[in-house]
Amino acid sequence: MCGIVGYIGEKECTGILLDSLSKLEYRGYDSAGIAVFDKHDKTIKTIKAKGRLKDLEKKMKGEDRLYGCCGIGHTRWATHGEPSDINSHPHGNARVTIVHNGIIENYKKLKEFLESKGYVFESQTDTETVAKLLDYYYDGENPIECIKNVINEIEGSYALGILFKDYPDTIYAIRKDSPLIVGKGKGEAFIASDVPAILKFTKNYYLLDEDEIAVLDRSGAKFYTKFGELITKELITADFDEESAAKGGYEHFMLKEIHEQPNAIKMTVTPRVTNGMPDFSECGLTEKMLSGYKRIFVIACGTAMHAGTVGKYVIERLARVPVTVDLASEFRYRNPILNKEDLVILVSQSGETADTLAALRLAKNVGAATMSIVNVKGSSIARESDIVVYTHAGPEISVASTKAYMVQIAVFYLLAFQLAYIKKTISKDECKRLVSVMLKVPDIIENVLELSDTCSYVASKLVNSENLLYIGRGLDYALSMEGSLKLKEISYIHSEAYAAGELKHGTISLVTDQMPVIAVATQRELFDKTVSNVKEVKARGAKVILITHKCMSVDEEAADYVIKLPTIDDMLMPMIGVVPLQLIAYYASVLRGNDVDKPRNLAKSVTVE
Ligand code: F6R
Q1: Is the terminal CB of the chain with fewer CB neighbours within 10 Å at N or C?
Q2: Which residues form ligand 1's pocket by a CB distance below 6 Å?
Q3: Number of structural domains the chain divides into
Q4: Measured in angstroms, how far is the CA atom of residue 303 from the centroid of ligand 1?
Q5: 396 C-alpha vs ligand 1 centroid, how far in Å?
Q6: At residue 167, what are phi and psi to the nearest 5 degrees?
Q7: Are residues 430 and 525 in the same domain?
Q8: pLDDT tens by residue, 79-116
């Protein structure tokens, strides 16, 4: 939700800010803007525009370009106030100018107070309140004192980049519940909401912690607590480079990321296998701990929740430990019954999703053990969990998640194998066998990726539909949920996932020749039952796409198109079966002419409730 950047150094900063913002557009693209200290008259000059970064660039060509070596920038996902020039960031005045990611929850109260002091507001944003509050407290001499006062008054989430008129070679930054990193180069320093934004310039960065204040100048950065005490922080080096965060010859990030899945699995699984057995000890998760948990709760949002649903099926089936899967936004408000013997697993690619973070805090408050499965190193969820299992998918840029889902389910499989072995519901040999099958999955996926043309053809048959159903049973239902979300979020075709056996309890009345059905049938013991449901929808005119194993013989009448997948253990089929679902969604989006990587109204990292 919004991306912020900042640069101070020897170079002209406009190009650097725009380049960094281009790496953060996945966080929101309702508007963009930058503010720069003019190097001639040392005043803060701002330019901003509704729309994408390219609209800002167009506007900049028409107006005076900004010249200076210190500036901040913003790409917006609108929360308070519609997307418009006036609501775009940066906000502020000639004395203090800011960019903000997050939500100021008490902005109305603060606004009333500021209006009573004579301030006049231009925008409908919560951010303008912070800009004006900083101005109110700024005495022209002491920015840190001013920031301390403001931190005491604002409630909600924020990552802020701040320019003070009297400090033309300095950027101030603070954060709470919204991510922010501070990059360090030679004679230059950066702020950014995410690491890929600075990789072109440096791989070295600091993670700003909750309520810390950063002061950046050409010599690097100094850090203070919210009480103004100087602190030292560890400099981290990113373990991926700019190239791995770029498109690498693919037309879209999503396609590149789909193709990166085999490698992402290897990177995530290999370090967690010792002598053929699952081993999470490097993450601090021991067999003793695992044997003690009586119940497991998996909490996540969207695609990550779908990964958790696969986890539930597999853990329950193999280890016989009860697993409840909750949407983080619901979990928080349903007064869940948790206790100290429960393990709460938070799943998140970004590690910053506000609802998932809040659910983690709730679980910790009641004393439950918490473990997160997170992709972004050092993110809030990772830092606050008792145990972190990092997925090693590398940066996921496309808003629609693909490789992150894949590695999340890979972790759940390994966890289920280990838990089942510890609980003695499977033997050591069986555990080793399952692990060895999993290690073959990356190669199998390489073969499945060759079905791209078939998936593109299938997508061309669906692309004019307005509605679509996904059906499946058991793990195939979990998979259908993900296939459906993928399709709707990037192609804008409305779709629903249904447990195949549930159709006849209402939804089948929607089925006509205008309602294509994608049936997922990779679970052999449920195959005949799913095929019966397929026949039911076919009899009502639906065009059917059936996704199943190569080894299953399918009655020619049953489906219009059949996608046949390589055969491995049924339990592991979601890792194989999700690939054609991702590809169908991808090609449907391309064929509809949509912006695949940046679907409308969405953002990659959802740091608001
Ligand atoms: C869909 C998608 C979202 C995310 C969800 C959670 O393709 O990416 O549904 O899965 O917003 O995000 P994270 O995993 O960052 O917590």
Answers
A1: C
A2: 301-304, 348-350, 353, 356, 400-401, 485, 489, 605-606
A3: 3
A4: 5
A5: 11
A6: -125, 70
A7: no
A8: 888 889 999 999 999 999 999 998 898 999 999 999 99
